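Lab notebook, page 48
Experiment: co-folding of the full assembly
Goal: obtain a model of how the components sit together before planning crosslinking
Operator: M.T.
Materials (sequences as entered):
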Amino acid sequence: MQARRLKTAVAIAAVAALAVGAAGCAESERDGGSGEAKTGGTFIFAGAGDPKNFDPIFNDDGESFRPVRQMFDTLVSHKPGTAELQGGLAESWEHDPDGKVWTFKLRQGVKFHDGTPFNAAAVCFNFDRWYNMKGAAAQSQMIYYMDTFGGFAKNEAEGAGESIYNKCEAKDDGTAVLTLNKYKGAFPGAFALTSLSIASPEALKKYDANTVTQSGDSFSYSAFANEHPVGTGPFTFGGWDKAKNEITLNRNPDYFGEKAKVDKMIIKIIKDESTRKQELRAGTVQGIDFPAPADRKALEGEGFQVINRPAFNILYLGINQKNPKLKDLRVRQAIAYALNRQQLVQTKGPGGAKVADEFMPDTVLGYAPDVQKYEYNPEKAKQLLKEAGAEGLTLNFYYPPDVSRPYMPNPQEIFTVLANDLQAVGIKVNGTPRPWNGGFKDDVQQFGKHDLHILGWTGDYNDPGNFVGTFFGRGKAEFGDQAMTEMFDAIAKADATVDDAGKKAAWEQVNKDIAAKWLPAVPVWHAPPAIVVTKDVKGLVASPLTDERFNTVSVSK
Amino acid sequence: MSDPITQAGTPAPRSGDDKPRPGMSERSIGLLGDRKKARLDELARASAADRGGISLVRDAVRRLRRNPVAIVGASIVALFVLMAIFAPLIAPHDPVQRFDELTKNLTVDTIPGASSEFPLGSDPLGRDFLSRMIYGARQTLFVGVLATLIGLALGVLIGAIAGAFGGWVDVVLMRLTDVMLALPSLLLAITLVAMASRSSQWTVIFAVAIVSVPIFARLLRGSMLAQRESDHVLAARALGVKERNIVLRHMLPNSLTAVIVQATLTFAVAILDAAALSFLGLGDPDINRAEWGLMLGVDGQRYFEVRPELAYYPALAIIVVALGFTLLGEAMREAIDPKNRR
Amino acid sequence: MLRVIVRRLLQLVVTLIALSALIFIWLRNLPGGPVEALLGERATPERRALLTKALGYDQPILVQYGKFMQRVLTGDFGNSIRTGDPVTEVISRAFPATIELAVAAMIIAVGLGVPLGYLAARWRGRSLDNLTIAGTLLGISIPIFFLGYLLKDVFTQNIHWFPPSGRLTTGLDNTSVTGFFVLDGLLTREFDASADALWHLILPAITLATIPLAVIVRITRASVLDVLNEDYVRTAEAKGLRHRTIRGRHILRNALLPVVTTIGLQTGALLSGAVLTEKVYNWGGLGTLITDSISGGRDYPVLQAIILLAALVFVVVNLLVDLSYAFIDPRVRVR
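Observation: model returned without errors.
Model output:
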């Protein structure tokens, strides 16, 4: 009986060997097949994480936005490869001198995937849907809406402000008029936010999109968000196979813009960056997002197209002024002088990284050409510390060891290098690692337990308020000083300036003062995240906002 | 990761059974955890089988000296320990210092290779890789020894209590260890790390240590139980020695042989598990610390294509040291096995 | 007998409830968590408050636990915080992947380990034996994730024999019936899918098989050596029985018993290895699920369910073991 079992095992092994052979054959046939495909075909792109769902308004992260951007359009869009605005679903727009009434001239003849027409009523339906959203569960997930409009018809959260949304009217089929209670610098850039994409009113109603049910301590989303997202974009939804980690998108033959070149796009979710690269090499995917900085050169050498997105982000070293020693500007300046940021960029920066002098990239309006720069100068740092009587300072430096962000591919190394520089001028550093989702952000942003920390930001649209305003526009535990009212006021004023020239001047002044007078943090670098495709892939335009639309992509052999 | 006790040489009878013949009492086929228990109990009985004490140890050492496997294992372990102790003398540089000569040519995708001053070249931050490897022995020894010691201490405590008191104390404690023994070791360690409020070198040490607690507990208890009825304990009891002193002076020392053998094997698993935790991103977060598992799990993985040596050398070091401890441990186990004394 | 079962079942229920309470409260007292994870860099105090309220974390922990137990009794373990999918669905998706991998690894380990161990024992002291022993020692000393990395680098990057990750070629259509992709392909007669799944399975299975393989080889070898010395084998040889008969009837049958026990035990150890192997090969199983739900913001419902599931399995197995003793061992039955 034992012997028989052995025989069975041998038989299984033999079958396995045969099957491997068969698989090999199947593979070669597959290769032959794709060789003939000139047009159409399938584009397989490896993403880095699971999307949450596909209802634009309930999402706020890049992994969810990647598929959403292929299926939906926004009123205003970005010129491919830049953060500049251009027409989207709206061909043009204008606002009154106060910046409160916005009139959108809509594109004609556009249809949603379900065949219903896109028009001003549909636009207003979407705005009203957002504004009137009910339930704490749903409201809590509308991060970008909250960022932009500040509140709902009925706020579930205590302390949430009044919404600046007033009303939306469909003047005629092609004209939507949006009325706000107050101007905000975010407009019109915010109309290009992926979260504020326009969805089909019919589908929203039919698939119960507003129902976000709370089941215990978690949310579940509607059929619209999970199975039937319907927009106007170049691709329609094909399905999400969660066992295989594949999202399938099909070409939309009725797209109003440049129709997709491929018949099908598959987004394959591969969380591990080195596995993404290996799949690319194996030829099983034709493109990957976020390659490890260390791999970019090798991939380029092997003939892949490594495309650096223009850097639209910032990494900074935050300083918490809750510590009285750090309230002294000289100490903060000493920290800035102590850091050899040029060397950090050279040794650890991903290709194309640049030392940052301001808290926003130089492509954003209001970037000042001449702010005070803090070149590496350890002697000056020591001297400043001495003047301030802060020699022998000990600081708790918080960092997240377990995460990789586009602006911060490897926090462990960045921390180690920065801490090293600080030690060199006599500041004792107490390294405090906290998991990204296990207390780092809470400790830093909510409780302010740290003295120093590293954190950053990727911009959402081309507006200084989205960078500087987000960081320093009001008192935060992160920087510890609720009393820098001078800075808060200057930022609020700049943000409320409607005309472009005035806005530019106001923000330039803010940037100069931040560097010279306030220095609540030290800007470290702008680091471009990359995207890689095989040499057979044509037409991909990388976006600084990671706002890639894959309709222009074709795969040839 | 594997468990040392399952890597054994010979089959064993079931726990508590006094049938001597292997293969005959193997009726409970496929019972989870049973094998593990059996092996531990055998080891426990082996060390306490006859009178135990000095003659057993002397006997074992004599046999070890003649065993080439033991000599190889012991040499590796000795070298490793010496390297750890004398790291500051051997290492050419400070392991955490960044050198301008190295950072000058360092970028995210090129790491300077060997030069006369830096025989193994640079690590990803411009530090001397050779010095880090040498200091790595020290940190690795530290993690392994502490994890083993903590596991040992807790296990000995539980096992001694269970073995000494017997009765319901024994039943409760052993049921607890049985469940722990049945859990896959790395899963248990991961769960413990997840349950810790922050990760540090200590969470790793502790998580790895806990995994070995039930092993030591079971081992010690078995050995104690076997001795309770043995002649020298009965004699001591007859002479009116206090129960506490019997446990501390007579039973515990005799059980330690088995425990030391097991500790040697546990050490190998401890450094492998620590490396695995680093690989999963649940390890020690401080990359200033030169520890082989950390170097392999973090830098070795990230810069595998830029400089594979960053993975190869720590991996090789771990393999050799784990192998050394395993060889030594198994040779020791064989040496104290009464069957080999024929 | 029945009384024993009832008593043990009651114990089981009490244990599970206590354990669930412990895990529930402990997890929620750790720093950070879902709110932090969901908000990312965009957290503001108001947003944090709203989300905390929406998720119900502002209520007393015992109230939260009570609600959780209420739902669990109706079979609802909640939804994953990250994806919103029911936890039961998330786990039942990952489960077949891990089992498929573990079974494949076990087939390799047994199919290779038993013959190797037997041969090594038969030719004890010869070069095959020495080589085998050296191999097994290396097998248990090598960090398995490193081995996986090496295999992957050599066989998928340098020579393209195998795919680097996943369970199926991207874009390949298959019909999922059981979730075991190899089996599904056979059931639905999509043989190319089956072959493709098998092709993806080989490297991960080899990686995962190393440790059980080493252990099985050693146990088999030792066990066969023991049996070879037994009187009945010598008697058989003296009687002049054919080698084949001796091998089959006397040696293997007796020697394999401890091996079979070891195989049972190694199944538990396989799950440990699976966590590492799955990460190396992006294999969407339970191991990946556990590490993801820890680092991806402590997905409470998923973590709770996995830990409880593991506890349940082990407690039930323990119970079955005890009961089976009663059937196997007459002494226990009498008592």
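Interpretation: Chain C touches chain B through 63 residues (CB under 8 Å).
Next step: discuss with group before ordering constructs.
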